[in-house]
Design a protein that fits this description.
Length: 66
Amino acid sequence: MDRSTYYYNKAFLDKPDKHEAVVSRLRELHAFHKGRYGYRRVTAALRAEGYVINHKTSSGSCAAQG
C-alpha cells in the first residue's frame, strides 16, 4: 500500500461521524415502530423533532440497518 493511501485512509477513519446523534435517534424511532417506518416517515418524524436532516442521510441509514 502506498504511503499516501495509508495516511489518507487513516485520516478518513479517524474523523467522528457527524450524523451520529441523528442516526441513533433514527434507530430508536425505527425500533419503536417495529420496523414499519420507512425512510420517508422517519425523515418526517426527525424533522418534526427539530433535526435538520436530508432524506438521503436517513435513506442510507435505514438501508444499512436492514
